[in-house]
């Protein structure tokens, strides 16, 4: 009997596998950390083989915990860190070096040159993105430029490109399927969000051969089936894929236009469902595909914040002023305010809505009385302020006012941060009862594709809030705190 959907989430810091049952609950989950490589300043890389090995370990643990046979898996759903770029040899399956991670800046000079040649408006119009090293396109070009003969081999169809979803599917299907989905494709800088195909004009500018690109599918399509996998049964269907932020939006049941979620992990990713309209941002946000279901495209507006929870990790591992991320709650709450201290955590530049890749982090407002807790509080507040920057831009772009923000991700475990977030936005914040909304979203896509669940209405019933935070701060204080943040950001940018 098929009792579970197996959902795989290959993220920036870890690989997870989860078994989700008919009631939409995660029954078992396992997680393995992956190694981060920093070969040069601003570069971040992963070992593609380790991504697969850790996923397999997680699958094995999950099956053991559940004490089930792999035959009980009805279908598989995949979600992944987006934009991260892998090239591999079609014959041997060997990757060309490491995966270039979304945070990595090694293709900055390619972006600068394309911008200098006036190409940014074209990229922006066709892809909904910007010329920033964040996205896959310039990473692919960089890899082809740095591996001798790779471009020619790619032209001959011997080298393949994939984001992490594509790489996982290649492995699950024993090299039978070279496929991505629209949500991942729409983060590559090579996909046209209006024609819904790879864009030849952009491929020419990037000098990327079309032969190396995967086929594109809808999010709950039958993508392929498992072949010769050490843990899974041959023929198990793969019926869902989505980039992790779109999967989290889906897992949060934000199915209606105007609904939004924010995920507080390594970075923060605020996504709003804009329905069938691709809203072109005038305020530094990105337009991407949320999902395609039954041939219907849903678009999203996205604000990508590069540093959020990773600034908390910096307090722990860099400054060593906390033992664990949880310590930040008590430290911040012990003060009546940050007393004018602002931390701008622009460690890898600033993403939305500023897109300033050269700016670096700064601390403002220190006095002789400033101490550890001010810094900790400043870091947590910076997460909330950056979210307000993005939400303000989003409301202006979409022409709507948000009534509630659904939240998920590791840092939502911090009550101080969640209350401050609600205060600074002046919007209620609802923490999802199922915290693992990303993996859940992948399961939902796969389950819809496999007929495990009937429709989105059924899934919407499973959503619950575990905690609601309501705004308590008076308008004047909110305004003056936020104005201080804006001054701090602009001072950092002009440094
Ligand atoms: N109680 C907490 N307060 C603040 N930040 C936290 C807390 N718990 C975890 N975090 C932060 O959340 C992040 C982990 O969240 P997670 O959703 O697992 O991220 P990712 O999916 O990006 O790996 C870490 O950067 C960590 O510093
Ligand atoms: O793996 P996460 O959760 O840090 O998400 C990474 C994003 O997909 C990058 O765009």
Automatic annotation (TrEMBL):
Pathway: Polyol metabolism; glycerol degradation via glycerol kinase pathway; sn-glycerol 3-phosphate from glycerol: step 1/1. Glycerol binds at residues 82-83, 134, 244-245. The lineage of its organism: Bacteria, Bacillati, Bacillota, Bacilli, Bacillales. Activated by phosphorylation and inhibited by fructose 1,6-bisphosphate (FBP). This is Glycerol kinase. Coiled coil: none annotated. The gene is glpK. InterPro entries: ATPase_NBD, Carb_kinase_FGGY, Carb_kinase_FGGY_CS, FGGY_C, FGGY_N, Glycerol_kin. It comes from Paenibacillus aquistagni. CDD domains: ASKHA_NBD_FGGY_GK. Homotetramer and homodimer (in equilibrium).
């Amino acid at each position: 009997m098929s009792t579970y959907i197996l959902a795989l989430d290959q993220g920036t810091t870890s690989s997870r596998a989860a078994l989700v049952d008919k009631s939409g609950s995660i029954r078992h989950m396992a997680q393995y950390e992956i190694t981060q490589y920093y070969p040069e300043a601003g570069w971040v890389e992963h070992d593609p083989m380790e991504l697969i090995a850790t996923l397999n370990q997680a699958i094995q643990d999950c099956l053991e915990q559940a004490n089930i046979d792999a035959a009980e898996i009805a279908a598989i759903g995949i979600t992944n860190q987006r934009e991260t770029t892998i090239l591999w040899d079609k014959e041997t399956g060997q990757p060309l070096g490491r995966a270039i991670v979304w945070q990595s800046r090694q293709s900055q000079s390619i972006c600068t040159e394309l911008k200098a040649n006036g190409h940014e408006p074209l990229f922006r119009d066709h892809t909904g993105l910007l010329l920033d090293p964040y996205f896959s396109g310039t990473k692919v070009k960089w890899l082809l430029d740095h591996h001798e003969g790779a471009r020619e081999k790619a032209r001959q169809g011997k080298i393949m490109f994939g984001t992490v979803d594509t790489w996982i599917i290649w492995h699950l299907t024993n090299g039978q399927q070279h496929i991505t989905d629209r949500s991942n494709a729409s983060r590559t800088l090579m996909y046209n969000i209006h024609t819904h195909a790879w864009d030849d004009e952009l491929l020419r500018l990037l000098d990327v051969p079309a032969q190396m690109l995967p086929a594109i599918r809808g999010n709950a399509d039958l993508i392929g089936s498992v072949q010769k996998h050490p843990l899974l049964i041959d023929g198990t269907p793969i019926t869902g894929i989505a980039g992790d932020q779109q999967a989290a939006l889906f897992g949060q049941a934000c199915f209606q236009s105007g609904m939004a979620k924010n995920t507080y992990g390594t970075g923060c990713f605020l996504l709003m469902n804009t329905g069938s309209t691709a809203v072109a941002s005038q305020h530094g946000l990105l337009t991407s595909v949320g999902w395609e279901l039954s041939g219907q495209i849903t678009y999203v507006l996205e604000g990508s914040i590069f540093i959020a929870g990773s600034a908390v990790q910096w307090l722990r591992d860099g400054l060593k002023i906390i033992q664990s991320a949880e310590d930040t709650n008590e430290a911040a709450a012990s003060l009546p305010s940050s007393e004018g201290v602002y931390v701008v955590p622009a460690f890898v530049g600033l993403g939305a809505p500023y897109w300033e890749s050269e700016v670096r982090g700064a601390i403002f407002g220190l006095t002789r009385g400033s101490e550890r807790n001010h810094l900790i509080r400043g870091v947590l507040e910076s997460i909330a302020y950056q979210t307000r920057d993005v939400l303000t831009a989003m409301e202006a772009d979409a022409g709507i006012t948000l009534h509630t923000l659904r939240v998920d991700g590791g840092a939502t475990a911090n009550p101080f941060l969640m209350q401050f977030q609600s205060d600074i936005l002046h919007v209620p914040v609802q923490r999802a009862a199922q915290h693992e909304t990303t993996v859940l979203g992948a399961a939902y896509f796969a389950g819809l594709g496999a007929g495990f669940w009937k429709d989105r209405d059924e899934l919407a019933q499973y959503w619950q809030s575990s905690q609601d935070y309501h705004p308590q701060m008076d308008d004047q204080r909110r305004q003056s705190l936020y104005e201080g943040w804006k001054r701090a950001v602009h001072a950092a940018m002009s440094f």
